[in-house]
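Hi R.,

Here are the chain sequences for the assembly we discussed:
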Amino acid sequence: PHKQHYWSTFPGRRARPAAFAAPPPQSREAAPAACAPTAPRAPRQRPCRAQPARTRALTQQSQGTAQGSASQQARLHCLPTHRRAASPQPINGLKDGRGGRWTVDKHSVEVTNCFSVPHNESEDEVAVDMEFAKNMYELHKKVSPSEIILGWYATGHDITEHSVLIHEYYSREAHNPIHLTVDTSLQNSRMSIKAYVSAPMGVPGKTMGVMFTPLTVKYVYYDTERIGVDLIMKTCFSPNRVIGLSSDLQQVGSASARIQDTLTMVLQYAEDVLSGKVAADNTVGRFLMDLINQVPKISPEDFETMLNSNINDLLMVTYLANLTQSQIALNEKLLSL
Amino acid sequence: MASRKEGSGSAGAASALQGQRQSRRCGGLGRQASADRRAVQYQMEMMRSLRHVNIDHLHVGWYQSTYYGSFVTRALLDSQFSYQHAIEESVVLIYDPIKTAQGSLSLKAYRLTPKLMEVCKEKDFSPEALKKANIAYENMFEEVPIVIKNSYLINVMLWELEKKSAVADRHELLSLASSNHLGKSLQLLMDRVDEMSQDIVKYNTYLRNVSKQQQQKHQYQQRRQQENIQRQSRGEPPLPEEDINKLFKPPQPPPRMESLLIAGQINTYCQNIKEFNAQNLGKLFMAQALQDYNN
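And here is the predicted structure of the full complex:
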Protein backbone atom coordinates (compact mmCIF):
# COMPACT_ATOMS: atom_id res chain seq x y z
CA PRO A 1 0.00 0.00 0.00
CA HIS A 2 1.10 3.44 -0.80
CA LYS A 3 2.19 5.15 2.34
CA GLN A 4 1.52 8.82 2.57
CA HIS A 5 2.83 11.24 5.07
CA TYR A 6 0.32 13.85 5.72
CA TRP A 7 1.30 17.31 6.53
CA SER A 8 0.72 20.65 5.02
CA THR A 9 2.62 23.82 4.54
CA PHE A 10 2.16 26.41 7.15
CA PRO A 11 0.33 28.90 7.10
CA GLY A 12 -1.94 30.37 4.53
CA ARG A 13 -0.51 28.78 1.45
CA ARG A 14 -2.17 26.12 -0.49
CA ALA A 15 -2.01 22.66 0.85
CA ARG A 16 0.53 21.23 -1.50
CA PRO A 17 3.51 20.31 0.59
CA ALA A 18 6.73 19.31 -0.95
CA ALA A 19 7.08 15.68 -0.08
CA PHE A 20 3.46 14.90 -0.42
CA ALA A 21 2.05 12.78 -3.14
CA ALA A 22 -1.15 14.49 -4.00
CA PRO A 23 -4.17 12.28 -3.75
CA PRO A 24 -5.61 11.29 -7.11
CA PRO A 25 -8.15 13.97 -7.87
CA GLN A 26 -10.92 11.78 -9.20
CA SER A 27 -11.07 8.94 -6.83
CA ARG A 28 -12.78 9.71 -3.64
CA GLU A 29 -12.19 6.29 -2.39
CA ALA A 30 -8.45 6.38 -2.13
CA ALA A 31 -6.80 3.50 -0.44
CA PRO A 32 -6.58 4.19 3.22
CA ALA A 33 -3.14 5.34 3.96
CA ALA A 34 -1.85 4.89 7.41
CA CYS A 35 0.53 7.60 8.45
CA ALA A 36 3.61 6.15 9.91
CA PRO A 37 4.56 8.40 12.76
CA THR A 38 8.06 9.61 12.20
CA ALA A 39 8.79 10.25 15.78
CA PRO A 40 6.01 9.61 18.21
CA ARG A 41 6.25 12.31 20.81
CA ALA A 42 4.12 10.70 23.42
CA PRO A 43 1.93 7.64 23.40
CA ARG A 44 -1.21 9.66 23.34
CA GLN A 45 -0.48 11.53 20.18
CA ARG A 46 -1.49 9.57 17.17
CA PRO A 47 -1.38 11.02 13.71
CA CYS A 48 -4.51 11.00 11.70
CA ARG A 49 -5.30 9.09 8.58
CA ALA A 50 -5.06 10.89 5.33
CA GLN A 51 -7.98 10.02 3.23
CA PRO A 52 -9.54 12.46 0.89
CA ALA A 53 -13.14 12.64 1.77
CA ARG A 54 -15.84 14.85 0.60
CA THR A 55 -17.14 17.13 3.24
CA ARG A 56 -20.82 17.29 2.84
CA ALA A 57 -23.25 19.74 4.19
CA LEU A 58 -25.04 18.92 7.33
CA THR A 59 -26.33 20.94 10.09
CA GLN A 60 -26.05 18.80 13.06
CA GLN A 61 -28.84 18.74 15.49
CA SER A 62 -28.90 16.37 18.33
CA GLN A 63 -29.16 17.04 21.94
CA GLY A 64 -26.10 15.86 23.62
CA THR A 65 -22.89 17.21 24.84
CA ALA A 66 -19.61 15.57 24.07
CA GLN A 67 -16.90 15.38 26.63
CA GLY A 68 -13.35 14.45 26.01
CA SER A 69 -10.89 12.90 28.38
CA ALA A 70 -7.32 11.70 28.40
CA SER A 71 -4.95 14.58 28.24
CA GLN A 72 -7.35 17.00 26.72
CA GLN A 73 -11.03 17.02 26.95
CA ALA A 74 -13.52 18.46 24.63
CA ARG A 75 -17.10 18.52 25.77
CA LEU A 76 -19.49 18.84 22.98
CA HIS A 77 -22.99 20.00 23.34
CA CYS A 78 -24.39 19.62 19.90
CA LEU A 79 -27.73 20.97 19.15
CA PRO A 80 -29.24 21.57 15.75
CA THR A 81 -30.82 19.04 13.33
CA HIS A 82 -29.35 16.67 10.89
CA ARG A 83 -30.32 17.60 7.44
CA ARG A 84 -28.81 16.70 4.15
CA ALA A 85 -28.05 19.79 2.16
CA ALA A 86 -29.56 19.91 -1.24
CA SER A 87 -26.80 21.98 -2.71
CA PRO A 88 -23.71 20.28 -3.97
CA GLN A 89 -21.58 22.68 -2.04
CA PRO A 90 -20.20 21.26 1.08
CA ILE A 91 -20.73 23.23 4.18
CA ASN A 92 -18.75 23.26 7.26
CA GLY A 93 -19.61 24.95 10.39
CA LEU A 94 -18.49 26.87 13.33
CA LYS A 95 -18.87 25.76 16.86
CA ASP A 96 -19.49 27.92 19.82
CA GLY A 97 -18.77 26.87 23.27
CA ARG A 98 -19.80 28.10 26.58
CA GLY A 99 -17.32 30.44 28.10
CA GLY A 100 -13.82 29.57 28.86
CA ARG A 101 -13.59 26.13 30.32
CA TRP A 102 -10.41 25.79 28.46
CA THR A 103 -8.01 25.85 31.33
CA VAL A 104 -4.57 24.41 31.36
CA ASP A 105 -5.10 21.98 34.21
CA LYS A 106 -8.48 20.70 33.30
CA HIS A 107 -8.11 20.65 29.56
CA SER A 108 -11.76 20.33 28.90
CA VAL A 109 -14.14 22.39 26.91
CA GLU A 110 -17.83 22.18 26.56
CA VAL A 111 -19.43 22.77 23.22
CA THR A 112 -22.95 24.01 23.53
CA ASN A 113 -24.05 25.32 20.23
CA CYS A 114 -23.20 25.33 16.59
CA PHE A 115 -24.25 26.85 13.33
CA SER A 116 -23.25 26.15 9.79
CA VAL A 117 -21.24 28.33 7.47
CA PRO A 118 -21.23 27.86 3.74
CA HIS A 119 -17.99 27.38 2.00
CA ASN A 120 -16.78 26.40 -1.39
CA GLU A 121 -14.43 23.54 -1.76
CA SER A 122 -12.74 22.63 -4.98
CA GLU A 123 -9.63 20.67 -5.66
CA ASP A 124 -7.23 23.47 -5.17
CA GLU A 125 -8.66 25.92 -2.80
CA VAL A 126 -11.16 26.57 -0.16
CA ALA A 127 -13.25 29.66 0.28
CA VAL A 128 -15.06 30.23 3.51
CA ASP A 129 -17.72 32.85 3.75
CA MET A 130 -16.20 34.76 6.61
CA GLU A 131 -18.72 37.57 6.51
CA PHE A 132 -21.46 35.08 7.07
CA ALA A 133 -19.56 33.46 9.89
CA LYS A 134 -19.03 36.76 11.62
CA ASN A 135 -22.66 37.73 11.19
CA MET A 136 -23.97 34.53 12.60
CA TYR A 137 -21.61 34.76 15.49
CA GLU A 138 -22.78 38.26 16.29
CA LEU A 139 -26.39 37.14 16.16
CA HIS A 140 -25.73 34.24 18.45
CA LYS A 141 -23.85 36.47 20.80
CA LYS A 142 -26.90 38.64 21.20
CA VAL A 143 -28.86 35.73 22.52
CA SER A 144 -26.27 33.99 24.60
CA PRO A 145 -23.48 36.44 25.29
CA SER A 146 -21.39 34.00 27.24
CA GLU A 147 -20.59 31.82 24.27
CA ILE A 148 -17.27 31.98 22.49
CA ILE A 149 -16.06 30.31 19.38
CA LEU A 150 -14.42 27.04 20.22
CA GLY A 151 -13.72 25.55 16.88
CA TRP A 152 -15.41 24.19 13.85
CA TYR A 153 -16.97 21.05 12.55
CA ALA A 154 -17.09 19.45 9.17
CA THR A 155 -19.12 16.61 7.88
CA GLY A 156 -17.15 13.84 6.40
CA HIS A 157 -15.07 10.91 7.34
CA ASP A 158 -11.62 12.27 7.63
CA ILE A 159 -9.34 15.23 7.59
CA THR A 160 -8.30 16.71 4.32
CA GLU A 161 -5.86 19.36 3.33
CA HIS A 162 -8.63 21.87 3.24
CA SER A 163 -9.31 21.19 6.85
CA VAL A 164 -5.88 22.43 7.67
CA LEU A 165 -6.46 25.73 6.01
CA ILE A 166 -9.79 26.22 7.61
CA HIS A 167 -8.34 25.24 10.91
CA GLU A 168 -5.74 27.89 10.53
CA TYR A 169 -8.42 30.44 9.94
CA TYR A 170 -10.19 29.41 13.06
CA SER A 171 -7.05 29.47 15.08
CA ARG A 172 -7.14 33.17 14.53
CA GLU A 173 -10.63 33.35 15.96
CA ALA A 174 -10.22 31.06 18.90
CA HIS A 175 -7.34 29.96 20.94
CA ASN A 176 -6.40 26.42 20.03
CA PRO A 177 -9.53 25.55 18.13
CA ILE A 178 -11.12 22.14 18.08
CA HIS A 179 -11.96 20.40 14.86
CA LEU A 180 -14.85 18.02 14.85
CA THR A 181 -15.76 15.58 12.15
CA VAL A 182 -19.19 14.08 11.82
CA ASP A 183 -19.26 11.15 9.51
CA THR A 184 -22.51 11.28 7.64
CA SER A 185 -21.34 8.97 4.94
CA LEU A 186 -21.72 6.31 7.61
CA GLN A 187 -18.50 4.51 7.09
CA ASN A 188 -18.36 1.23 8.97
CA SER A 189 -22.12 1.67 9.48
CA ARG A 190 -21.43 4.12 12.23
CA MET A 191 -21.82 7.82 12.41
CA SER A 192 -18.59 8.50 14.16
CA ILE A 193 -17.97 11.84 15.71
CA LYS A 194 -14.37 12.64 16.34
CA ALA A 195 -12.61 15.66 17.67
CA TYR A 196 -9.12 16.86 16.97
CA VAL A 197 -6.74 19.52 18.09
CA SER A 198 -3.94 20.65 15.91
CA ALA A 199 -0.32 20.52 16.88
CA PRO A 200 2.58 21.69 14.84
CA MET A 201 5.14 19.20 13.86
CA GLY A 202 7.99 18.81 11.48
CA VAL A 203 11.45 20.08 11.24
CA PRO A 204 11.67 23.63 12.52
CA GLY A 205 13.05 26.00 9.96
CA LYS A 206 12.38 23.70 7.07
CA THR A 207 9.09 22.02 6.29
CA MET A 208 6.66 22.59 9.07
CA GLY A 209 3.40 20.78 9.25
CA VAL A 210 0.30 20.41 11.25
CA MET A 211 -0.84 17.28 12.91
CA PHE A 212 -4.29 16.63 14.18
CA THR A 213 -4.31 14.82 17.46
CA PRO A 214 -7.55 13.12 18.32
CA LEU A 215 -9.43 13.79 21.48
CA THR A 216 -11.90 11.59 23.14
CA VAL A 217 -15.40 12.76 23.02
CA LYS A 218 -18.00 12.27 25.68
CA TYR A 219 -21.60 13.24 25.72
CA VAL A 220 -23.00 15.08 28.67
CA TYR A 221 -26.63 15.96 29.14
CA TYR A 222 -28.55 18.20 31.39
CA ASP A 223 -31.41 16.42 33.10
CA THR A 224 -34.17 18.03 31.14
CA GLU A 225 -32.19 17.63 27.95
CA ARG A 226 -31.87 13.93 28.51
CA ILE A 227 -35.59 13.57 28.96
CA GLY A 228 -36.18 15.37 25.71
CA VAL A 229 -33.62 13.20 23.94
CA ASP A 230 -35.24 10.07 25.32
CA LEU A 231 -38.48 11.14 23.81
CA ILE A 232 -36.94 11.97 20.47
CA MET A 233 -35.14 8.66 20.49
CA LYS A 234 -38.47 6.86 20.37
CA THR A 235 -38.78 7.73 16.72
CA CYS A 236 -36.07 5.18 16.08
CA PHE A 237 -38.55 2.44 16.88
CA SER A 238 -41.54 3.61 14.95
CA PRO A 239 -41.83 2.57 11.31
CA ASN A 240 -42.33 5.97 9.77
CA ARG A 241 -40.22 7.77 12.34
CA VAL A 242 -43.17 9.63 13.78
CA ILE A 243 -44.27 9.74 17.38
CA GLY A 244 -46.71 11.82 19.30
CA LEU A 245 -46.44 13.05 22.84
CA SER A 246 -48.03 10.61 25.19
CA SER A 247 -50.46 11.42 27.93
CA ASP A 248 -49.89 11.22 31.64
CA LEU A 249 -50.75 7.68 32.59
CA GLN A 250 -49.19 6.30 29.45
CA GLN A 251 -45.89 7.79 30.54
CA VAL A 252 -46.07 6.11 33.91
CA GLY A 253 -46.95 2.92 32.11
CA SER A 254 -43.99 3.10 29.79
CA ALA A 255 -41.61 3.97 32.60
CA SER A 256 -42.76 0.98 34.61
CA ALA A 257 -42.48 -1.21 31.54
CA ARG A 258 -38.89 -0.07 31.24
CA ILE A 259 -38.19 -1.01 34.81
CA GLN A 260 -39.86 -4.32 34.28
CA ASP A 261 -37.56 -5.03 31.35
CA THR A 262 -34.47 -4.19 33.32
CA LEU A 263 -35.68 -6.33 36.18
CA THR A 264 -36.18 -9.29 33.87
CA MET A 265 -32.66 -8.82 32.61
CA VAL A 266 -31.32 -8.82 36.12
CA LEU A 267 -33.36 -11.87 37.03
CA GLN A 268 -32.09 -13.68 33.96
CA TYR A 269 -28.55 -12.90 35.00
CA ALA A 270 -29.19 -14.23 38.51
CA GLU A 271 -30.65 -17.43 37.08
CA ASP A 272 -27.67 -17.87 34.84
CA VAL A 273 -25.26 -17.46 37.68
CA LEU A 274 -27.18 -19.90 39.82
CA SER A 275 -27.27 -22.51 37.13
CA GLY A 276 -23.59 -22.00 36.52
CA LYS A 277 -23.79 -20.65 32.99
CA VAL A 278 -22.17 -17.36 33.86
CA ALA A 279 -19.37 -16.85 36.31
CA ALA A 280 -20.39 -14.98 39.40
CA ASP A 281 -19.09 -11.48 39.76
CA ASN A 282 -18.82 -10.02 43.23
CA THR A 283 -19.41 -6.41 42.34
CA VAL A 284 -22.55 -7.25 40.46
CA GLY A 285 -23.66 -9.32 43.41
CA ARG A 286 -23.14 -6.39 45.72
CA PHE A 287 -25.17 -4.15 43.45
CA LEU A 288 -27.95 -6.69 43.48
CA MET A 289 -27.91 -6.73 47.25
CA ASP A 290 -28.19 -2.96 47.31
CA LEU A 291 -31.06 -3.14 44.90
CA ILE A 292 -33.00 -5.59 47.02
CA ASN A 293 -32.38 -3.65 50.16
CA GLN A 294 -33.66 -0.49 48.60
CA VAL A 295 -37.24 -1.58 48.91
CA PRO A 296 -37.88 -0.19 52.36
CA LYS A 297 -39.04 -2.51 55.07
CA ILE A 298 -41.99 -0.89 56.69
CA SER A 299 -44.57 -2.59 58.83
CA PRO A 300 -47.79 -3.09 56.94
CA GLU A 301 -49.87 -0.84 59.19
CA ASP A 302 -47.51 2.11 58.82
CA PHE A 303 -47.40 1.63 55.10
CA GLU A 304 -51.18 1.46 54.95
CA THR A 305 -51.58 4.71 56.84
CA MET A 306 -48.97 6.42 54.70
CA LEU A 307 -50.51 5.18 51.51
CA ASN A 308 -54.01 6.10 52.55
CA SER A 309 -53.11 9.59 53.64
CA ASN A 310 -51.32 10.20 50.36
CA ILE A 311 -54.20 8.87 48.35
CA ASN A 312 -56.62 10.97 50.36
CA ASP A 313 -54.56 14.07 49.70
CA LEU A 314 -54.52 13.42 46.00
CA LEU A 315 -58.22 12.67 45.85
CA MET A 316 -59.03 15.80 47.76
CA VAL A 317 -56.93 17.92 45.44
CA THR A 318 -58.60 16.37 42.43
CA TYR A 319 -61.99 17.08 43.94
CA LEU A 320 -61.06 20.68 44.62
CA ALA A 321 -59.76 21.11 41.10
CA ASN A 322 -63.01 19.78 39.71
CA LEU A 323 -64.96 22.06 42.01
CA THR A 324 -62.99 25.07 40.85
CA GLN A 325 -63.59 24.20 37.25
CA SER A 326 -67.31 23.88 37.76
CA GLN A 327 -67.27 27.18 39.63
CA ILE A 328 -65.74 29.08 36.78
CA ALA A 329 -68.07 27.40 34.32
CA LEU A 330 -70.97 28.55 36.46
CA ASN A 331 -69.54 32.02 36.62
CA GLU A 332 -69.33 32.09 32.88
CA LYS A 333 -72.94 31.06 32.50
CA LEU A 334 -74.11 33.67 34.99
CA LEU A 335 -72.23 36.43 33.29
CA SER A 336 -73.76 35.65 29.97
CA LEU A 337 -77.28 35.90 31.30
CA MET B 1 -38.98 18.38 14.77
CA ALA B 2 -35.94 18.14 16.86
CA SER B 3 -35.80 21.54 18.32
CA ARG B 4 -33.55 23.28 20.68
CA LYS B 5 -35.12 24.60 23.81
CA GLU B 6 -33.94 27.64 25.60
CA GLY B 7 -34.91 26.28 28.97
CA SER B 8 -34.32 29.32 31.03
CA GLY B 9 -37.25 28.53 33.23
CA SER B 10 -37.90 31.91 34.64
CA ALA B 11 -40.28 34.44 33.23
CA GLY B 12 -40.43 33.05 29.76
CA ALA B 13 -37.65 33.30 27.26
CA ALA B 14 -39.62 33.99 24.15
CA SER B 15 -38.15 32.91 20.94
CA ALA B 16 -39.02 32.36 17.33
CA LEU B 17 -39.54 29.09 15.53
CA GLN B 18 -38.54 28.66 12.00
CA GLY B 19 -39.34 25.98 9.58
CA GLN B 20 -42.39 24.87 7.80
CA ARG B 21 -45.53 23.68 9.47
CA GLN B 22 -43.19 21.27 11.11
CA SER B 23 -40.81 23.46 12.97
CA ARG B 24 -37.24 22.65 12.31
CA ARG B 25 -35.14 25.09 14.16
CA CYS B 26 -35.44 27.51 16.97
CA GLY B 27 -33.53 30.65 17.44
CA GLY B 28 -33.42 32.23 20.82
CA LEU B 29 -34.50 35.80 21.20
CA GLY B 30 -33.34 36.19 24.73
CA ARG B 31 -35.47 38.24 27.03
CA GLN B 32 -36.43 40.87 24.53
CA ALA B 33 -40.07 41.56 23.95
CA SER B 34 -41.29 40.49 20.57
CA ALA B 35 -42.28 43.99 19.66
CA ASP B 36 -38.80 45.31 20.14
CA ARG B 37 -37.20 46.67 17.02
CA ARG B 38 -33.89 44.99 17.75
CA ALA B 39 -35.67 41.67 18.06
CA VAL B 40 -37.29 42.14 14.69
CA GLN B 41 -33.96 42.99 13.17
CA TYR B 42 -32.38 39.96 14.77
CA GLN B 43 -35.11 37.76 13.37
CA MET B 44 -34.70 39.11 9.87
CA GLU B 45 -30.95 38.65 9.96
CA MET B 46 -31.21 35.18 11.37
CA MET B 47 -33.69 34.13 8.75
CA ARG B 48 -31.57 35.52 5.99
CA SER B 49 -28.53 33.68 7.25
CA LEU B 50 -30.44 30.46 7.60
CA ARG B 51 -31.74 30.75 4.10
CA HIS B 52 -28.20 31.17 2.96
CA VAL B 53 -27.28 27.84 4.42
CA ASN B 54 -30.31 26.17 2.97
CA ILE B 55 -32.13 25.55 6.19
CA ASP B 56 -35.89 26.00 6.35
CA HIS B 57 -36.41 29.56 7.27
CA LEU B 58 -40.13 30.12 7.22
CA HIS B 59 -41.44 31.55 10.41
CA VAL B 60 -43.94 29.28 12.08
CA GLY B 61 -44.36 30.68 15.50
CA TRP B 62 -42.64 31.18 18.76
CA TYR B 63 -42.10 29.41 22.01
CA GLN B 64 -42.16 30.38 25.60
CA SER B 65 -41.08 28.64 28.73
CA THR B 66 -43.21 28.92 31.84
CA TYR B 67 -43.54 27.71 35.37
CA TYR B 68 -46.23 25.18 36.24
CA GLY B 69 -48.24 26.02 33.18
CA SER B 70 -48.98 29.66 33.94
CA PHE B 71 -48.95 31.07 30.47
CA VAL B 72 -52.42 32.52 29.90
CA THR B 73 -51.53 36.19 30.14
CA ARG B 74 -52.39 39.29 28.21
CA ALA B 75 -48.88 39.52 26.82
CA LEU B 76 -49.04 36.04 25.37
CA LEU B 77 -52.41 36.74 23.88
CA ASP B 78 -51.18 39.88 22.19
CA SER B 79 -48.04 38.29 20.84
CA GLN B 80 -49.86 35.26 19.55
CA PHE B 81 -52.46 37.45 17.97
CA SER B 82 -49.87 39.48 16.13
CA TYR B 83 -48.13 36.33 14.96
CA GLN B 84 -51.32 34.65 13.89
CA HIS B 85 -52.50 37.75 12.17
CA ALA B 86 -49.34 37.94 10.11
CA ILE B 87 -48.87 34.25 9.53
CA GLU B 88 -51.95 32.12 9.41
CA GLU B 89 -50.56 28.91 10.83
CA SER B 90 -48.39 30.16 13.63
CA VAL B 91 -48.42 28.37 16.94
CA VAL B 92 -47.01 29.07 20.33
CA LEU B 93 -45.15 26.28 22.04
CA ILE B 94 -45.33 26.20 25.77
CA TYR B 95 -42.46 24.43 27.40
CA ASP B 96 -42.45 23.70 31.10
CA PRO B 97 -38.97 22.87 32.33
CA ILE B 98 -40.09 22.00 35.83
CA LYS B 99 -42.58 19.44 34.69
CA THR B 100 -40.01 18.09 32.24
CA ALA B 101 -37.52 17.64 35.02
CA GLN B 102 -40.05 15.35 36.63
CA GLY B 103 -39.68 12.84 33.89
CA SER B 104 -41.81 13.60 30.88
CA LEU B 105 -41.37 16.22 28.25
CA SER B 106 -43.98 18.88 28.73
CA LEU B 107 -44.48 20.60 25.42
CA LYS B 108 -47.81 21.90 24.21
CA ALA B 109 -48.74 23.87 21.13
CA TYR B 110 -51.57 26.37 21.14
CA ARG B 111 -53.32 28.62 18.71
CA LEU B 112 -56.03 31.19 19.15
CA THR B 113 -59.47 30.09 18.09
CA PRO B 114 -60.93 31.96 15.13
CA LYS B 115 -63.59 33.46 17.38
CA LEU B 116 -60.97 34.96 19.62
CA MET B 117 -59.08 36.23 16.61
CA GLU B 118 -62.19 38.11 15.54
CA VAL B 119 -62.57 39.70 18.91
CA CYS B 120 -58.95 40.69 19.08
CA LYS B 121 -59.18 42.23 15.67
CA GLU B 122 -62.01 44.44 16.77
CA LYS B 123 -60.09 45.29 19.94
CA ASP B 124 -63.39 45.54 21.65
CA PHE B 125 -63.40 43.69 24.93
CA SER B 126 -66.57 44.99 26.46
CA PRO B 127 -69.03 42.50 27.88
CA GLU B 128 -71.57 42.98 25.12
CA ALA B 129 -69.08 42.26 22.37
CA LEU B 130 -67.83 39.17 24.13
CA LYS B 131 -71.34 37.97 24.76
CA LYS B 132 -72.12 38.46 21.12
CA ALA B 133 -69.09 36.44 20.13
CA ASN B 134 -70.10 33.79 22.63
CA ILE B 135 -66.63 33.10 23.85
CA ALA B 136 -66.18 31.00 26.90
CA TYR B 137 -62.82 30.51 28.54
CA GLU B 138 -62.60 27.09 26.97
CA ASN B 139 -62.80 28.54 23.50
CA MET B 140 -59.84 30.79 23.82
CA PHE B 141 -57.01 28.49 22.88
CA GLU B 142 -57.09 25.39 20.85
CA GLU B 143 -54.43 22.82 21.43
CA VAL B 144 -52.58 21.45 18.47
CA PRO B 145 -51.22 17.92 18.84
CA ILE B 146 -47.48 17.68 18.52
CA VAL B 147 -45.87 15.00 16.45
CA ILE B 148 -42.16 14.44 16.34
CA LYS B 149 -40.66 13.29 13.12
CA ASN B 150 -37.01 12.62 12.53
CA SER B 151 -35.04 11.93 9.43
CA TYR B 152 -33.00 8.78 9.07
CA LEU B 153 -29.77 10.57 9.70
CA ILE B 154 -31.04 11.87 12.97
CA ASN B 155 -32.06 8.38 13.95
CA VAL B 156 -28.56 7.17 13.23
CA MET B 157 -27.12 9.89 15.37
CA LEU B 158 -29.53 9.06 18.16
CA TRP B 159 -28.43 5.45 18.10
CA GLU B 160 -24.88 6.67 18.39
CA LEU B 161 -25.73 8.81 21.36
CA GLU B 162 -27.55 5.98 23.00
CA LYS B 163 -24.50 3.78 22.71
CA LYS B 164 -22.13 6.38 23.96
CA SER B 165 -24.11 7.75 26.84
CA ALA B 166 -24.04 5.99 30.16
CA VAL B 167 -27.10 4.10 31.30
CA ALA B 168 -28.07 6.97 33.49
CA ASP B 169 -30.81 7.07 36.01
CA ARG B 170 -33.92 7.71 33.99
CA HIS B 171 -36.46 7.11 36.62
CA GLU B 172 -37.52 10.52 37.83
CA LEU B 173 -40.94 9.82 36.45
CA LEU B 174 -41.49 7.08 38.99
CA SER B 175 -40.39 9.07 41.99
CA LEU B 176 -43.04 9.37 44.67
CA ALA B 177 -41.77 12.62 46.14
CA SER B 178 -43.99 15.04 44.36
CA SER B 179 -45.79 17.00 47.02
CA ASN B 180 -43.58 20.02 46.46
CA HIS B 181 -44.74 20.40 42.91
CA LEU B 182 -48.32 19.89 43.91
CA GLY B 183 -48.03 22.46 46.67
CA LYS B 184 -46.69 25.11 44.39
CA SER B 185 -49.32 24.46 41.75
CA LEU B 186 -52.02 24.76 44.35
CA GLN B 187 -50.54 27.99 45.60
CA LEU B 188 -50.67 29.48 42.13
CA LEU B 189 -54.19 28.21 41.71
CA MET B 190 -55.25 29.89 44.94
CA ASP B 191 -53.75 33.19 43.84
CA ARG B 192 -55.64 33.05 40.62
CA VAL B 193 -58.87 32.16 42.33
CA ASP B 194 -58.41 35.18 44.59
CA GLU B 195 -57.95 37.39 41.56
CA MET B 196 -61.00 35.88 40.02
CA SER B 197 -63.13 36.55 43.06
CA GLN B 198 -61.98 40.15 43.09
CA ASP B 199 -62.92 40.43 39.49
CA ILE B 200 -66.33 38.98 40.23
CA VAL B 201 -66.84 41.44 43.03
CA LYS B 202 -66.00 44.28 40.68
CA TYR B 203 -68.45 43.02 38.14
CA ASN B 204 -71.14 42.66 40.73
CA THR B 205 -70.68 46.21 41.94
CA TYR B 206 -70.90 47.36 38.38
CA LEU B 207 -74.15 45.52 37.88
CA ARG B 208 -75.50 46.91 41.08
CA ASN B 209 -74.56 50.41 40.03
CA VAL B 210 -76.25 49.95 36.72
CA SER B 211 -79.45 48.76 38.31
CA LYS B 212 -79.36 51.56 40.87
CA GLN B 213 -78.96 54.03 38.09
CA GLN B 214 -81.88 52.57 36.24
CA GLN B 215 -83.99 52.98 39.30
CA GLN B 216 -82.89 56.55 39.71
CA LYS B 217 -83.68 57.29 36.13
CA HIS B 218 -87.08 55.75 36.52
CA GLN B 219 -87.78 57.75 39.64
CA TYR B 220 -86.66 60.92 37.99
CA GLN B 221 -88.93 60.31 35.04
CA GLN B 222 -91.85 59.61 37.28
CA ARG B 223 -91.28 62.74 39.29
CA ARG B 224 -91.05 64.71 36.11
CA GLN B 225 -94.32 63.38 34.85
CA GLN B 226 -96.05 64.09 38.10
CA GLU B 227 -94.73 67.63 38.12
CA ASN B 228 -95.88 68.11 34.57
CA ILE B 229 -99.36 66.86 35.41
CA GLN B 230 -99.52 69.21 38.37
CA ARG B 231 -98.36 72.13 36.32
CA GLN B 232 -100.86 71.37 33.63
CA SER B 233 -103.60 71.28 36.20
CA ARG B 234 -102.43 74.68 37.41
CA GLY B 235 -102.08 75.97 33.87
CA GLU B 236 -98.35 76.53 33.86
CA PRO B 237 -96.10 75.44 31.02
CA PRO B 238 -94.58 72.03 31.50
CA LEU B 239 -90.98 71.73 32.44
CA PRO B 240 -88.59 71.31 29.58
CA GLU B 241 -87.55 67.84 28.71
CA GLU B 242 -84.07 67.31 29.91
CA ASP B 243 -81.77 64.83 28.53
CA ILE B 244 -81.85 62.02 31.00
CA ASN B 245 -78.69 60.46 29.81
CA LYS B 246 -76.68 63.52 30.56
CA LEU B 247 -77.88 63.57 34.12
CA PHE B 248 -77.24 59.94 34.75
CA LYS B 249 -73.99 58.91 33.22
CA PRO B 250 -73.88 55.15 32.86
CA PRO B 251 -70.99 53.57 34.76
CA GLN B 252 -68.13 52.01 32.87
CA PRO B 253 -68.44 48.29 32.38
CA PRO B 254 -65.34 46.52 33.61
CA PRO B 255 -63.21 44.92 30.88
CA ARG B 256 -64.08 41.30 30.52
CA MET B 257 -60.85 40.16 28.95
CA GLU B 258 -59.06 39.93 32.26
CA SER B 259 -61.63 37.67 33.76
CA LEU B 260 -61.62 35.50 30.67
CA LEU B 261 -57.89 35.14 30.92
CA ILE B 262 -58.01 34.37 34.59
CA ALA B 263 -60.70 31.77 34.01
CA GLY B 264 -58.61 30.24 31.25
CA GLN B 265 -55.59 30.14 33.48
CA ILE B 266 -57.49 28.53 36.30
CA ASN B 267 -58.77 25.96 33.89
CA THR B 268 -55.24 25.14 32.77
CA TYR B 269 -54.04 24.84 36.33
CA CYS B 270 -56.87 22.50 37.18
CA GLN B 271 -56.18 20.34 34.16
CA ASN B 272 -52.51 20.10 35.02
CA ILE B 273 -53.23 19.28 38.61
CA LYS B 274 -55.65 16.56 37.66
CA GLU B 275 -53.17 15.03 35.24
CA PHE B 276 -50.48 15.15 37.83
CA ASN B 277 -52.71 13.57 40.42
CA ALA B 278 -53.66 10.76 38.10
CA GLN B 279 -50.00 9.94 37.61
CA ASN B 280 -49.33 10.05 41.32
CA LEU B 281 -52.23 7.80 42.13
CA GLY B 282 -50.93 5.28 39.66
CA LYS B 283 -47.49 5.42 41.23
CA LEU B 284 -48.90 5.01 44.72
CA PHE B 285 -50.85 1.95 43.73
CA MET B 286 -47.73 0.47 42.19
CA ALA B 287 -45.84 1.07 45.41
CA GLN B 288 -48.64 -0.60 47.28
CA ALA B 289 -48.44 -3.62 45.03
CA LEU B 290 -44.71 -3.85 45.58
CA GLN B 291 -45.09 -3.63 49.31
CA ASP B 292 -47.85 -6.23 49.40
CA TYR B 293 -45.67 -8.59 47.47
CA ASN B 294 -42.92 -8.01 49.94
CA ASN B 295 -45.10 -8.97 52.84
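Residues 1-105 of chain A have pLDDT under 50 and may be disordered. Chain A touches chain B through 94 residues (CB under 8 Å).

Let me know if anything looks off.

Best,
T.
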